[in-house]
Design goal:
Number of helices of chain B: 13
Strand content of chain B: 5-15%
Shape of chain A: globular
CATH superfamily of the largest domain in chain A: Butyryl-CoA Dehydrogenase, subunit A, domain 3
Distance between the termini of chain A: 35 Å
Number of strands of chain B: 8
Structural class of chain A: alpha+beta
Number of domains of chain B: 3
Helix content of chain A: 40-55%
Number of strands of chain A: 10
CATH topology of the largest domain in chain B: Butyryl-CoA Dehydrogenase, subunit A, domain 3
Number of domains of chain A: 3
CATH class of the largest domain in chain A: Mainly Alpha
Low-confidence stretches of chain B: none
CATH superfamily of the largest domain in chain B: Butyryl-CoA Dehydrogenase, subunit A, domain 3
Order of helices and strands of chain B: HHHHHHEEEEEEEEHHHHHHH
Shape of chain B: globular
Radius of gyration of chain B: 22 Å
Mean pLDDT of chain A: 96
Low-confidence stretches of chain A: none
Number of helices of chain A: 11
CATH class of the largest domain in chain B: Mainly Alpha
CATH topology of the largest domain in chain A: Butyryl-CoA Dehydrogenase, subunit A, domain 3
Oligomer: heterodimer
Distance between the termini of chain B: 40 Å
Order of helices and strands of chain A: HHHHHHEEEEEEEEHEEHHHH
Chain lengths: ~375, ~400
């Protein structure tokens, strides 16, 4: 039901041409459509019922994201609902959730998670931004955050900053809720290769009250790691939708394009290439489903194994699909005119947001070796 | 879809696991622990033990002697047997001709053959390929012509008749209409003159010649027919209808050879070897990031296959026909098994030179790796080579046009 609605929404209300047009738009998506998504219940799908959501399972949201990926729907579900929403739901007090999560589920507030820094690579514990205690309560935040997903449109930033501990130490990282219009917040909107927007964030001594601390002081690194895993699973779901769409458009092209007086789909070398794309696309879908299910019900290490495995499949198999998609379209595939390139760029992007192949391969190895680990 | 099995299914898994613990004879267990190759006598001994328990043919319907298990229990049973490294049963009777007879055989044929396939009294082999009919199977030439007394007279040669030297019966694709033969008089497609025939290997005029595999094991055979007389009641399906049966049977075969359980055992062994093998500087190879990455990448490919298997299973449990996710299992399953052995060989380094040596030359769990590495080159060839599998997927799943 949910999947059918999402599929029909993607096909009818948001064909790829919409994503193509919105590349030129400063916001990159439409508030009207965002409202519609709130009404469909997607924004609050994984938000607890007590906070105004539907208390659904993550796998349900993942299935929606897969459908939206198939036509590159540009609304920031990944940034606002998955990154922002998960962090608020897991770290916020009842009061904080009522203040921010409920309006987020209703489509009235965009929250962006600002965790990455110039030198942090994929480690949320590598946090140089600092939060100093102010005399008389509250904190004063300073530092720079980079490539904040959805940051250009955010009303609220969830910012990690160090309240203690050494430069790359997990202990001592805290999370704060910062209003966009707070004094000292500097937001620079930037373009990303997939035709979307993000933000570079500068905190120049921003003063926040003690009620802006999310979760336990100094304990946010683990939380951020968990949130990034949820986001990685979401990226894989979106990637699975992209892979299936590229496979379908490439097969269609092979059936219609003629060269040497024949449909090029009759050539065995291209048929076998298309089968490779099909296999990798199916495997990505399998990995993605497993990762999503583990988000809901997994034991922590098993969840990490499943997420890392899925992300590796995204960056290998998923990228093979879109790269071969471009190749089999030939010259037209290398132009900005053809949609296959839009999918190609989004798939590339998804593979660097929440850890790349090396990162997840190493993490998977650490979780599955030595030799007596379960296979 | 849920990842977790129900408590009933988990309890069934425990039941299977503890039964295997008790039922597997000590000498077979010792071999399974080092993943040694099993002799046919050992395979059939284990076959009879499973038969006694009622589990020899998990996927057969109850009315024909199957255990009447639901798809998930069938899957669990198969998976536990694979994971425990029990002797792999010969697939030709249980997995191929048996299900085919259940689907297409006459009541008399079912009664005659099925019970002895189950009990292991009669061992089967497969007569499909010929020296000039491999991937192009339909161009086969072995002829079966009816004589005056109504029997088929069979002449020709079948190859890759695996384990024919231990078999009692062979199921064959033969040409009953000579006009359809390649280079023949013409008239009709080459697929249309093919019939499915069951032949007793004791028949005068049938000769079996074993052949060593690349792995040094006596698995392959060639089987020659010269004037062998076969009763007409051994024809399965209509005369000239053999190709349809053959295609149905290839479907059975494809789901048999994803080999996920076997690959999981190899990955486990790879880690064990890597933890013991000295790498550069004398530190265990498993500390080398490149080695760790290769093992992890392989294990991730295997997990994907396993999940594809679960997806197919979830569909089967709901009574759905196999979807696209199952069609990739043979293709990738065979490749992953090969890659697992390739990695095991690389990690063994100079020790991978060993070839059927006495215990103590290398670790017991390493001794069989080179032979298995060599033999598993066949996994991407048998059951329809992977190139043929891709042709089939391109045509039937992706709908790409034929030339």
């Amino acid at each position: 039901m949910l999947v059918d609605t999402a599929a029909s929404f993607a096909k009818k209300s948001s064909p790829v041409v919409r994503a193509r047009k919105l590349r030129q738009d400063p916001l990159g998506f439409e508030p009207r459509v965002w409202k519609q998504m709130a009404e469909l219940g997607w924004l609050g799908l994984c938000v607890p019922e007590s906070d105004g959501g539907f208390g659904g399972r993550f796998v349900d949201l993942a299935l929606v994201l897969e459908q939206l990926g198939s036509t590159l729907v540009p609304e920031p579900l990944l940034a606002t609902c998955v990154l922002g929403g998960t962090a608020l739901a897991r770290a916020g007090t009842a009061e904080q959730r009522a203040r921010w999560l409920a309006p987020l589920a209703a489509g009235e507030l965009h929250a962006a998670l600002a965790w990455a820094e110039r030198d942090s690579r994929y480690d949320p514990a590598a946090c140089a931004a600092r939060a100093e205690k102010r005399p008389g309560g509250g904190f004063r935040l300073s530092g720079d955050k980079v490539w904040v997903q959805g940051g250009h449109a955010a009303d609220l930033f969830l910012v990690s900053a160090r309240t203690g501990g050494g430069a790359r130490e997990a202990a001592g990282v805290s999370l704060f809720a910062v209003d966009r219009d707070a004094a000292g917040v500097e937001v620079q909107a930037v373009d990303t290769m997939d035709g979307r927007r993000a933000a570079m964030l500068r905190l120049g001594g921003v003063e926040v009250g003690a009620d802006r601390l999310l979760g336990q002081e100094g304990q946010a690194a683990g939380l951020l790691g968990d949130v990034l895993d949820v986001a990685a699973a979401a990226a894989c779901a979106e990637g699975a939708g992209i892979a299936q769409a590229v496979l379908a458009m490439t097969v269609e092209y092979l059936k219609t394009r003629e060269q040497f007086g024949l449909k090029i789909g009759t050539f065995q070398v291209l048929q076998h290439r298309a089968v490779e794309m099909f296999v990798e696309s199916e495997l990505l879908r399998s990995h993605s489903i497993e990762a999503s299910l583990r988000i809901d019900e997994g034991e922590a290490d098993e969840r990490r194994r499943a997420v890392s495995a899925a992300l590796v499949q995204l960056t290998t198999g998923g990228r093979l699909v879109v790269r071969q998609g471009v190749q089999l379209h030939g010259g037209i595939g290398c132009t900005d005119e053809h949609d296959v390139g839009l999918y190609f760029k989004r798939m590339q992007t998804l593979g660097v947001l929440f850890g790349d192949e090396e990162h997840h391969l190493a993490r998977f190895a650490a979780l599955t070796q030595p030799p007596d680990a379960p296979v | 879809m849920e990842l977790a099995f129900t408590p009933e299914h988990e309890s069934f898994r425990r039941e299977v696991r503890s039964w295997i613990q008790e039922a597997l004879p000590a000498d077979l267990r010792a071999k399974s622990e080092v993943d040694a190759n099993f002799e046919m006598e050992e395979v059939m001994r284990w076959h009879r033990i499973l038969f006694q328990r009622g589990w020899v043919a998990p996927h057969w319907p109850a009315e024909h002697g199957g255990p009447g298990l639901d798809p998930t229990r069938r899957f669990i049973l198969t998976e536990e047997l694979e994971l425990a490294g029990t002797p792999p049963l010969s697939p030709f009777g249980l997995g191929m001709v048996g299900p085919l007879l259940i689907q297409f055989g006459t009541p008399a044929q079912k009664q005659r053959f099925l019970p002895k396939i189950l009990s292991g009294e009669e061992v089967w082999c497969q007569g499909y390929s010929e020296p000039n009919a491999g991937s192009d199977l339909a161009s086969l030439r072995t002829s079966a012509v009816k004589n005056g007394s109504g029997k088929y007279v069979v002449d020709g040669q079948k190859t890759w008749t695996t384990y024919a030297q231990y078999a009692d019966w062979i199921f064959c694709l033969v040409r009953t209409d000579p006009k359809t033969a390649p280079g023949g008089a013409g008239g009709g497609k080459k697929q249309e003159g093919i019939s499915f025939l069951l032949i007793d290997l004791e028949t005068p005029g049938v000769e079996v010649k074993p052949m060593l595999t690349l792995g040094g094991t006596p698995a392959f055979c060639e089987t020659f027919f010269s004037g062998a007389e076969v009763p007409a009641e051994n024809l399965v399906g209509p005369e000239g209808g053999g190709w349809t049966l053959a295609k149905a049977l290839l479907g059975h075969e494809r789901t048999l050879i994803a080999a996920v359980g076997q690959s999981r055992r190899v990955v486990r062994r790879v880690k064990r070897i890597a933890a013991q093998a000295a790498g550069p500087g004398g530190r265990p190879l498993i500390d080398d990031p490149r080695v760790r990455g290769r093992i992890a990448a392989l294990e991730i490919r295997l997990r994907g296959l396993q999940m594809a298997n679960y997806r197919a299973l979830a569909g089967a449990q709901l009574g759905k026909a196999p979807g696209p996710e199952s069609s990739i299992l043979k293709l990738r399953g065979s490749e992953v098994l090969q890659q697992a052995f390739e990695l095991a060989m690389d990690i063994m380094g100079p020790d991978s030179l060993t070839w059927f040596n006495q215990p103590g030359v290398v670790e017991p769990f390493e001794e069989w790796v080179p032979s298995a590495f060599c033999y598993t080159r066949a996994t991407t060839i048998y059951g329809g080579s992977n190139e043929i599998q891709k042709n089939v997927l391109a045509k039937y799943i992706l709908g790409l046009p034929a030339r």
